[in-house]
Structures are given as C-alpha cells and as structure tokens.
Amino acid sequence: MQKIIIIKYAELSTKKDNINFFLSTLKENLKASLRDYKVNITYDKGRMFINGPEENFDLITDKLTKTFGIHEINIGYELENNNLDNISASLIELIKDKDITTFKINAKRSDKNYGITSPEIARILGGIVLKNKENVSVDVHNPSTIINIEIRYQHAYIYFDKIKGIGGYPVGVAGKSLLMLSGGIDSPVAGYLAMKRGVRLECIYFESPPHTSVAAKNKVISLAKTLADYSGYVKLHVVNFTAIQEAILKNCPHEYLITIMRRMMYRISERIAKKHNCKAIINGESIGQVASQTLTSMSCINCVTSMPVIRPVACLDKLDIIEIAKKISTYEISIQPYEDCCTIFVPEHPIINPTRECCETYEEYFDFAPLLNDAINSEEVIKVENKISEEYSDIL
After folding, report:
1. Residues pairing with 150 in the sheet
2. How buried is residue 35: exposed, middle or buried, by Cβ count under 10 Å (0-12/13-18/19+)?
3. Across 76-85, 282-291, 355-364, 382-391, which has the greatest mean pLDDT?
C-alpha cells in the first residue's frame, strides 16, 4: 500500500477526440511545476497519479491548487491489486487510528468486468467498517467521514479527504495571447481568467520614465510573478512609451489624450503580439468603469487593430474583480501607490463618446509612425518565473 496523490480532471474531462492533448499538456505543466520534488506522474482518461516523497506532499499539493485543469486533489493509497480481500484488509488498517463517528462508502469501478457492482462493493466494505470500528454508524446524508474506494483495471485506491482545485483548462492548450498588464487591479485578474481557459500569457507593460518610476515597473513585475505562480512562467515585454505620450500631450486636445494614447498602445500591442506569435490581445477593460471603457470608446480604440481583443472582466462589477484579485494575491500589489502611464496624464474631463474621425484627425497633428517604431525597438523582455529572484535579472 503506497501513499499517492490522485488528481481528478476539471472541464477537460468532457473532451473526446483531443482529450489526450489536454491531458498530456496538464502532465507537462505539472512536470515543470514539480520539477524540484522528484515525482513520477502517470495518467489515464479518468485520473492522474503522482508518486513522490511523502514529506513533500504538502508542498506538492500547494502547487496543484494553483494548476489549471484540476478539479479535485486527493491524498490516497494505491493498493497492489484490486482484489476485494486486499481492499478490505487495507481499509481495516487505514481506519484503525482514524477518528470516525459516522461514515459513508463511495465505491466506483472503472473495470466493468469486475465481479461485483459498485453498490455491492459499498455494502460489503461498509460491513467491514462496522465490524472493525467501534461506535460508528452509517450516515449516507451527512457523514463525518466519506470513504472513497476506486477500483481500476490494475489497482484499487482508497482516500478520504479532498482538496478543491481551480478547474479550467491546462495553460497552453488554447495557444498564446498578449496581456496588456498595467499596475491596476483589473488587468491581472483578466490574465488569470484567460489562463483558466488554457491561454499561455505573454504580457506587455508601457513605462514612461521619468513620469513613471522604477517602483512602478517593479510593481508590474511582481504582478507578473504572481501570475506565473499559475502558469510556471510569464514573459513580460516592457516598452518605453514616453516619447509617444509626450507627443500626444503636446499636439492633441486634452479630452482626447486617453483615447489616442490607448489607440497607440493597441497598435504597439498588435505588433508585439504578432512578433511573438500571440493570437489575441487581452486587457482588463470593464464596461463603463472609466471614460476609455464606454462602449463608444472601446469601439473607437479597438478599430486600430485587426487582432481579436479579449476582455475577461468586461461584464464584472468592480467588487467582483477585487474579490478575485484578493483570491489570487494580486490585490495588495495592485494597490501600491505607484502610478502607471495610464494615470499620470489623465485629463480633468476625458471624452466618453469619442469619434473615430476626430481621432484620425488629431493623429495627423504629429508623425506617430517613427515613434511607434522606436517604442517597439525599445522592447525589453523579462522572463518572470514562479521561483525567480527578487532582482528579476533573467533578461532575454
């Protein structure tokens, strides 16, 4: 009898012809995440199994709770064979020192050629518990202990407690996209939700020195590092936006500053995304939250790119976004008082219903094409890993 970690799949278990792609991706993600723990990972279409040193199980479980594609984690026991006598003997041993008042047996059999049915297995093993454990009773509705028995083709498994996973698809099965990562609350949450749908993230951050500080950049790197806890690593593209921002401030009507600035960001993001084989742009825009996020503004800004733009938090209330940010540990980082380039030049009365025609007219007031080229050529790529040092020195 060997102690083992049993993983139950999330939504990916509904896949049919391409389920092996989803499962192999999950396995590779786990191999990368657990590379320091000397584990062996095997799987079939129903379960994934992790063998490794028991002293690391708590650390391994913590990693698993941050891995997309997992519905449930169970610390259980793998039996050498699925013979009912062996299962009974092992169960007696496991419950000997376990505090049980009421219990229920959940029995499942993957091998439909097994000699007896699941209800019969539950009945027989329930009798074994009653016979070998004093002062216990069966309660199928609200038991203090649920005893899970799974009979598979070669082995049987016994487990008691379960740990909830975060669900979703394994990161990478949906390809790669570029997240416009600011220092605010919304964009990291948008990145998290995109990863939950299997998207591998690269991020872009627009810095504007000396108007934005090194502390603001490090804040964004910290956000990227937190997101990397859920995906192993994140590549962060840092682009110098100073010259573009100053040109917009000098040449364009102030009520249009944010609108035109966002149009420039989208143009740069599209080119960076295509350069690095990203299939879409992701951002933290939420309908109506600020002037640049009205539907009219989004339409006016979005028209400069032909790439799909995904807005995972578009229809969430701010309080809902904050709740997710706290859950994923980005909130306390996001509220640090370091301004990004989206907030330093906000006009007193930004326009909420801009027109495309006005934007195109005002953009003719200065030659922005070479400024875009310079910004893209300034690109600094930082590979932020979930175990990276505080210096973030891994510059590609």
Report:
1. 108, 157
2. exposed
3. 355-364
Look-up: residue for tokens 């479980």? Answer: 61
Please state the separation of Cα 88 from the chain's center in Å: 40
Residue 216 is which amino acid? A
Q: How far apart are CA 343 and CA 212, in angstroms?
A: 10
> Alpha-carbon torsion 193, 195, 200, 203, what sign?
positive
The answer to whether the 2-167 and 176-385 domains have the same CATH topology is no
| DSSP state, residue 199 | P
Query: What does the H/E/C string look like for 109-175?
Result: ECCCCCCCCHHHHHHHHHHHHHHHCCCCEECCCCCCEEEEEEECCCCEEEECCCEEEEECECCCCCC
245-297 pLDDT, tens digit per residue, is 999 999 999 999 999 999 999 999 999 999 999 999 999 999 988 878 899 99
For 176-385, give the CATH class.
alpha beta
pTM here?
Answer: 0.90
As given in the structure block, the two tokens for residue 163 are 């740990």
CA pair distance 391, 202, nearest whole angstrom:
20
* Distance, CA of 298 to CA of 317 (rounded, Å): 18
Q: What is the pLDDT of residue 354?
A: 95
Give the helix/strand (H/E) hosting 295. Answer: helix 295-302
Alpha-carbon gap, residue 122 to 129, rounded angstroms: 10
Q: What architecture is the 2-167 domain classified under in CATH?
A: 2-Layer Sandwich (3.30)
